[in-house]
Amino acid sequence: MINRVAQAAGIVGPLVLGTASLVTAVTYRGTADEGFSPFNHWVSELGEVGVSDMPAVFNAGLMVGGVCFVLLMVGLAMLRGGPLSLLYGLIGIVSGIAGVLVGIYPMNFPGQHTIVAQAFFNLGWIAVLL
């Protein structure tokens, strides 16, 4: 059972987050009426309420992606076992929870957003690396 849940989460999470990001980026018009570009915008700007045209789509995608990352990392740690499984499992759980919190605290909440966004991205790549 956990194997199927982890597999589904590993597919659904990136698809939902990727689709939400793409849809939001295509419709984005910044404060100077410019389109979104990763060369002159932070990805988090896609979820900024009052600036992004579809912040709820992006933020919801982050929340779904974060929950799916938690499920994936728990399942992976349980199925693989071994000395590193507890470590990357816990780091993955914290990263996924932080991803959910990025959707709850968009850039309009700079203090909270900075903390949870850094945790999401940095802990996420560390968990995957392990």
Secondary structure elements and their pairing?
Layout: H1 2-27, H2 55-80, H3 85-104, H4 110-129
Structure description:
The chain is an all-alpha fold and 130 residues long. Helix content is 71%, strand content 0%. The protein has 4 helices and no strands. It has helices spanning 2-27, 55-80, 85-104, 110-129. Helix 3 (85-104) packs antiparallel against helix 4. The protein is elongated and about 50 Å long. The mean pLDDT is 94.
Name the descriptors.
130 residues, mainly alpha, 4 helices, 71% helix, elongated
Structural class: mainly alpha
Counted beta strands: 0
Mean pLDDT: 94
Radius of gyration: 15 Å
Largest sheet: none
Categorize the overall geometry.
elongated
Short note summarizing the structure:
By secondary structure, the chain is mainly α. The chain has four helices and no strands.
